[in-house]
Write a structure and sequence with these properties.
11% of the residues lie in helices and 36% in strands. The protein has 425 residues and is mainly beta. The chain folds into 2 domains: 178 residues, Cathepsin D, subunit A, domain 1 (Beta Barrel), CATH 2.40.70; 166 residues, Beta Barrel (Cathepsin D, subunit A, domain 1). A 6-stranded mixed barrel has the order 3-4-10-5-9-8. It has a 4-stranded antiparallel beta sheet with strand order 16-15-21-22, with helices on one face. A 4-stranded antiparallel beta sheet has the order 19-20-24-23.
Length: 425
């Protein structure tokens, strides 16, 4: 089966920045925002020089690996671990939401991340920031939070050299520093007054993305917590296929308009990693046959953080090695092609056409069966096909390629996550 494979850094934007193609200036309505692929005509992040398919796969794998390593580092090697949230998880932005910040509103692009609480934007005068900066001096509703503010205790490494609550944190291999601030943030047509975020003053290193970050995790400073009255800690997204012509999907904030006919699985609570969306993965099928996986490889363990999370920022699904090897070997047996090759971190690639089986993730209360479009990468010429999964050190991560063309609903008040097939574009 030949298919065109578009570049893999699945950055998407939920609207557009100023100065882009006017045909892309689609107005978001209510609490619904449109999603665009990063390489669509509406994206400011199109590469100036197209990469070859192999170069793009390898670059995306490298960025993905950094994120997976950090996620896995949250899993303790002993029974007692310090309490921490997912603030430092984002290694490269995966989805970008257009937010209007301040009064009068200034449009800013912010990376959305379901495994992070962090909210910050580059501000005027920021040293090392490479994107459009928020000019806080022009906003009549902006204020810097002092050291006595309750939120100051919720940011990483707070310091109080002056009156402002300052913070610094790692971001991949980089560091960022800023002041804790508040202002009105508007998503689509919904204003959220007194939103707490970091106003960046300095960044150092190569892994800081040019945009700000908007965390959709479950911690106290996340969007869900700060907009609880407005959205009731409920949202869903539908990610478009990389092969769809329009590359567009949608984000719905709040319980209104969410699917009625949808199956759910419980969200599990890990007090040591409160931001992450853990689910109970109980088995995996390749074709119709359940794969023999050691129970410890997929079991949820709140004392260590091991288990399975749903993540919007990782591109390719990772399974801990015993689970991955079992699934990979079952996949290879079903494909029945002898000449298996590798590409970067993918170890199950073929240079001849294959007939691939489906893979089903079996969760408590629901199964999610993935067709070939969610499982296989095809080179532009169709000459190489790879299983788009790899092994992880300590944590199973269901990533965004495997979520494409599904409506994924996060219903935090009822501690459940739902998945249903949906054409997103």
């Amino acid at each position: 089966m030949k298919a065109h494979f578009f570049p893999l850094a699945f950055l998407l934007i939920f609207s557009l920045a100023q100065g882009l193609n006017p045909k892309c200036d689609i107005q978001d309505h209510g609490s619904n925002l449109q999603v665009f692929h990063v390489y669509s005509p509406c994206s400011p992040f199109k590469p100036s020089k197209p990469l070859s398919w192999e170069e793009d796969v390898l670059q995306t794998l490298a960025k993905d690996q950094a994120r997976v390593q950090f996620l896995s580092s949250l899993v303790a090697k002993k029974s007692v671990v310090p309490i921490a949230s997912g603030r430092q998880i984002v290694q490269s932005p995966t989805y970008i939401v257009k937010a209007n910040i301040g009064t009068p509103p200034q449009p800013m692009l912010m990376a959305m991340d379901t495994s992070s609480d962090a909210a910050w934007v580059p501000c005027t005068g920021c040293i090392g920031c490479s994107s459009t900066a928020f000019d806080f001096a022009k906003s009549t509703t902006f204020r810097t939070l002092g050291c006595q503010a309750a939120q100051c205790k919720q940011v990483p490494n707070p310091t109080c050299g002056g009156s402002a609550c300052s913070f610094n944190m790692t971001y991949g291999g980089s560091t960022i520093a800023g002041n804790l601030s508040q202002d009105t943030i508007t998503l689509a047509t919904d204003p959220i007054p007194n939103y707490t975020f970091g106003c960046l003053q300095k960044t150092a290193g190569s892994s800081v993305p040019p945009q700000g970050v908007l965390g959709l995790g479950r911690g106290p400073l996340s969007l869900l917590s700060q907009s609880q009255n407005l959205y009731q800690s409920t949202f869903s997204y539908c990610l478009p296929s990389i092969r769809s012509p329009n590359f567009s999907g949608s984000l719905r904030l709040g319980p209104s308009g969410q699917p009625v006919r949808i199956k759910y699985t419980p969200l599990l609570k890990n007090p040591r990693r409160p931001s992450l969306y853990y689910v109970n993965l109980i088995g995996i099928r390749v074709g119709r046959r359940i794969v023999a996986i050691p129970p410890s490889a997929i079991a949820f363990n709140p004392s260590t953080g091991a288990g399975t999370i749903i993540d919007s920022g990782t591109v390719f699904t990772r399974l801990v090695e015993p689970a991955y090897v079992a699934v990979r070997d079952a996949f290879r047996r079903r494909v029945r092609v002898a000449n298996v090759t590798s590409l970067g971190g993918f170890d199950t690639c073929y240079s001849v056409p294959i007939n691939a089986p489906t893979i089903t993730f079996m969760f408590s209360g629901m199964n999610v069966t993935l067709p070939q479009e969610n499982l296989l990468l095809h080179s532009t010429a169709g000459s190489i096909t790879c299983l788009a999964m790899a092994s992880a050190p300590a944590l199973n991560v269901i990533a965004n390629m495997q979520q494409q063309n599904h409506r994924v609903v996060f219903d935090v008040p009822n501690s459940r996550m739902g998945v249903a097939r949906e054409r997103c574009s």
